Every structure is written in structure tokens, then in C-alpha cells.
Amino acid sequence: MIRVLLADDQEMVRTGFRLILSAEDGIEVVGEAGNGVDAVALARSLKPGVVLMDIRMPQLDGLEATRLLVADPDPPRIVVVTTFDLDEYVYGALRAGAAGFLLKDAGPRLLVEAVRAAAAGDALVSPSVTVRLLAHLAARPASRMPALPDPLSPRELEVVRAVARGRTNAEIAAELFVSLSTVKTHLTNVQSKLGARNRVETAAWAWEHGLVQ
């Protein structure tokens, strides 16, 4: 069962999300918060697997609440949900350690997919945001590939490129003819070598260094 905490200052939004998610098998909404302070407190007491976090909230905004929770010993997976389709929020959310970024008008299907992806250790970003974000990174001159203390293996580079193209773990396993557990192991190793907290940061690293055309 995926336990979800909803953090949004608009009660109508929380109600809508709760109705959508509660209708899904294997998902349970365990709490709601109307501000960032309550969101952090409830996340620490209820221990949800996933937090849907609004950005603009009173007392403490969603980005700072995300930073606080990600620093905990056993943090939840946080998907930032917002109406603000602005690059500064996208980068801010990802730098804060969010596992996904979703626009509120993305629709019920993507909302459910974002929760399931986050719970599974994947990250989902709204397609419109993903396309613009990656195009922005690709338009810049590629940064020189850093000399990593522990270089990526050829297979790990293949996994990184697949992640940067938005492939799920299952799709990567099928493309490379390996097991799902092997893909997860490669991703764990890659993130450790890159110092990346999640697959979105891994994808951004690949685009920034010209690994994806």
C-alpha cells in the first residue's frame, strides 16, 4: 500500500487529489496539510511513502519543506505539484531533492502515475516541463565531462542515456536485455558516483554533459 500525504493550502485541491487517489487500488491518503510547517510535522509523524507537495504555501513554502524532509534519515519521496510552470520552480524543486514535478492541470492519470513512480523509486515530471527542461539543457554548450573519482562503466553510461530520454526502469531493462533488478543496481551505482539524489538529477547531468543527442 502506497501511503500518501497531501500538502496544499487549497482545500479544494486536496479534496480533488484525495478523491482521485483514494479510488486507486494500492494507494491510501493518510493525511492532509494546509501549510509547509504542518506538512513537515505530519510527514515525520505519519511516515508516508509519498508526499504531494505544493510550492506556494503559508508559513513555509514547499521547496523549503522539501529540503527539510529530504534531509531526514528516512525521507519520503516528494512530488512537487504546482500551477506555476516556471523554470525557477522546476530547478528549485529538483535541487531541493524532489522526486518529481507535476503541474496541477496534468490530469488524474499523470497524478496517479507520479505517485506510483515515486513510490517505485522512479521520478516523473510533467511531459511539458520535461520537454522544455531538457531542450533548455541541450541548447546550452555541453559542459566538459568531469573526471569522476569512480568513472561510469559503458553499461552505466547506457543506463544514464536511457534515463535521460525518459525511459522507465522496465523500458531500460527491455532495451538492454537485462533484469529489472540489474537496472536498479546500475542506477544505484550511477547515482552514487554522480552524487545524484534521484533519476531526474541523473538525466539533467547527462544532458548537461552532451551524452544525449
Give structural notes:
By secondary structure, the protein is an alpha/beta fold. The protein folds into 2 domains: 2-134, 3-Layer(aba) Sandwich (Rossmann fold); 142-208, Winged helix-like DNA-binding domain superfamily/Winged helix DNA-binding domain (Arc Repressor Mutant, subunit A, Orthogonal Bundle), CATH 1.10.10. Helix content is 52%, strand content 13%. Strands 2-1-3-4-5 form a 5-stranded parallel beta sheet, with helices on both faces. α2 packs parallel to α3 (62-70), α7 crosses α9 (180-194) and α7 crosses α10. The longest helix is centred in the C-terminal third of the chain and has 15 residues, at 180-194. The model has no long low-confidence stretch (mean pLDDT 85).
Strand fraction equals: 5-15%
CATH superfamily of the largest domain: Response regulator
Radius of gyration: 17 Å
Tell me, what's the shape? globular
CATH class of the largest domain equals Alpha Beta
CATH architecture assignment name of the largest domain = 3-Layer(aba) Sandwich
List the helices and strands and how they pair.
Elements lengths: L1 E6 L3 H12 L4 E7 L2 H11 L3 E4 L8 H9 L6 E6 L4 H10 L3 E4 L4 H12 L7 H13 L14 H11 L4 H8 L3 H15 L4 H10 L5
Parallel strand pairs: 1-2, 1-3, 3-4, 4-5
Helix pairs in contact: 2-3, 3-4, 7-9, 7-10, 8-9
Short précis:
The chain has helices at residues 11-22, 36-46, 62-70, 87-96, 108-119, 127-139, 154-164, 169-176, 180-194, 199-208, and strands at 2-7, 27-33, 50-53, 77-82, 100-103. With 213 residues, it is of the alpha/beta class. The chain is globular, with a radius of gyration of 17 Å.
